[in-house]
Amino acid sequence: MLTFATLRERWPSFAGGFVVLFLGMAMVSMSVLALASAGARVPERLAGTPVFVSVPMAERGDGDFAPDRPWSPETVASLRERLDAIPGVAQAVPDRTFYAQPVIGGRPVAGDRGYAWSAAMLAPYPLTAGAAPREGEVALDRSLGLAPGERVSVLTVHGPVTYPVSGTVDGPGVYLNDAEAARLSAGVRAIGLVTEPGADVAAVAAAARAVAGGVVLTGEGRGALETREDERTRWIGLQVLTAMAALSAFVSVLVVGSTFAVGVAQRRREFGLLRAVGATPRQVRRMVYGEALAVGVTATAGGVAAGALLGPVLGDLLVTVGFQPPGFAVRWSPLPLAGSFAVGVVVTLAGVWSASRRAARVRPLEALREAEVDDRPMPRGRWIAGVACCALGLAAAAGAGRSDGSDAFVVSGLVAAMGVIAGLALLSPAVVPPVARLVSWPLARGRGATGMLVRENALTAVRRTAATATPVLITVGCAVLITGMVQTTAAAFAEVRATTIRADAVIVPDGTPGLTDAAASAAGAESSLFSGLFEPDGGVLSAIGATPELLERAGDVQMVSGSLDALRSEDRVLVAQWLAEDRGLRPGSTLPVSFEDGTSATPTVAGVVREADADVLLSRELLRRHDPVALAEEAYVAGAAGPPGPGARVMDVPTYAAEADAEEDRLVWIATVLLVVVSTAYAGVAIVNTMAMSAAGRVRDLAVLRLSGATVRQVLATVAAESVLVVLLGGGLGLVVALPALLGMRRAFATAMRADVPLVVPWPLILGVIAACLALAACAAVLAARPAVRRAAPAGAAETRWRRGPRSG
């Protein structure tokens, strides 16, 4: 029953589904290829060493980037001696890293990693000029343009140090003498085994495993040595890619389903004729499935091919915006592409399932149908699903409204909005007519015929109106909800910072990953240090090293017991309330931990804190002594700020409060806008598709308008006005659904943070989404109806003007 002639004849009905499947599967295949390529990579600076011995790696949950416990200095020395003795090992090299950033032309340059000179062998990065650094000398990347003998200022955690350049290397990094690097670096977590020429790597790895008894990494397994910063960046990119792929597949199902639902509604007489001549419901179903698969397979194949070609472009874009670490590239692989093709076929079948069942239920008497009025009731299952979603959303909204800020009010707000949006989308054929009647009431009061026609067409063609309004409702509702939540959350944290910080100015990094001790002290500021403490069982506790005065100035801590003065002693710590309850700690208990340099201590618990940004608070001097690589995120100034050191600048408190999480907010906002743009693009395709399909079924209506005296311009204006009315209807419903949920979340934020949190909605972006939908709907409606309008009126037919009704005489 399915022929190519049928496909050619029905191509306008299939075009929308083809386009959205093509775009959706292109996005899915690009995302899947990027996901398959986004595994941990062997760092370039370690790629020349075939075997590494690593500390035991703890199992971490999703989104947990805590470091592993380093070896103690004694363990490193013992391991190095035993690994050096393995046959085939030329040298065992501890991988020591620290903060070191050259200052050229008065500004810190890109690249902030320092290494021991012996670590250059791990790449290897050979000398291109000069000699290896001795004590008090430095070797640099030749791309910096410095020659041996020149002097360069290098920022370290303690401040700027001027070094003579001993030589240049063919790779990034700042290289110091091993003894000097050991003083600046923290604990060692990996030792590279540089092998002799011709050595048996497998035998070396086996011997290392027997000698060290730890984790031995070879081949691609060395990717586990990537930095936590790269791992976090890669994780963020995975979330964005997964969301894009899921959104593309989900919207594709909806649009394909909508496309074939409208097509089935327009072809009821055709299906009735088929039933009248003996076609069974099963045959009708198979015909609809066959048409869908013919379109879906073609569109999916084209989309997957486009995704494979555009994958490298997506990879470059992800690196540029910060969703993947430098060096990431999308690699072509047949398995992800085959999976994407299978997803496209499944999406097609899922989208057409409901339409095929509806087509199979058409009765033979439908062949006698003449009227185009769509008065069929909604299916019972759609009623039940729509009412259930609305009830779930309203229940979640009530829970969010009663929140005191101590529960998951954000999740409740999201469930509330998404539940009502989904419910209204399902109930749109029943909800849209009364709302359209109310909204279009002023049109009926006007004198002209255009307003009356616009109103009556919107109310009569219920399914067409709902099919156009629903994607706008979903797109605008989700855009308002997601963007408003992101912006309101950022504003909430900024408001809390602005009201809790008791300082006159803040020193922040300028071109550096953090503040050095010298940069803060030069401006008369105090800074805290953030680090990690390691429990005997391998657990990691976050720690802040600070003075009592600094914590009072920052306003971050609420005491449960004890006093901040305990931090004046290096053998006393304060612990978070959750940690005290979980470990049974109380004042006088001991907390055995290890530091970043691998050494251990057993400080005494002197108090418990409720509100803090870390699990443990301790003396700043103690933390600095055991973590020589920690940099401060900011420093607070009481009184007038002096000129800061290199790599720092002064900000007032309100500006700092608004920009403190600028980089993280930027990534979140880019991801948010990306999802909004993708969803708007799909909504646009759905709108254009609906307009194109409905135009094919309105030839008789448009002919009647032309025969009644309407000009081509008047008919097209009526069609455009209908589309504008429907888009405004969907946009208004989206705003009505999303804003109450946002207001509830804003109230819960204000309660939780004990501050007046403003509601921030990016109206320019939202209005841009609505404007894009309006333009697409109006243009698509006019362009689709224009050929039918021009064919509708017979030659020589009289035309009368009816903008304000018929004229007498």
TrEMBL record:
Recorded family membership: Belongs to the ABC-4 integral membrane protein family.
Protein name stated in the entry: ABC transporter permease
Organism of provenance: Nonomuraea cavernae
Keywords from the named record: Cell membrane, Membrane, Transmembrane, Transmembrane helix
Pfam families cross-referenced by the UniProt entry: FtsX
Domain ABC3 transporter permease C-terminal, chain residue ranges per copy: 244-362, 674-790
Spans traversing the lipid bilayer: 235-265, 292-315, 335-355, 383-402, 408-427, 472-494, 667-694, 715-743, 763-785
Native organism taxonomy: Bacteria, Bacillati, Actinomycetota, Actinomycetes, Streptosporangiales
Compartments it resides in: Cell membrane
Membrane topology: Multi-pass membrane protein
Keyword Cell membrane included in the entry's annotation: yes
GO cellular component, as recorded: plasma membrane
GO molecular function: transmembrane transporter activity
The keyword DNA-binding appears for this protein: no
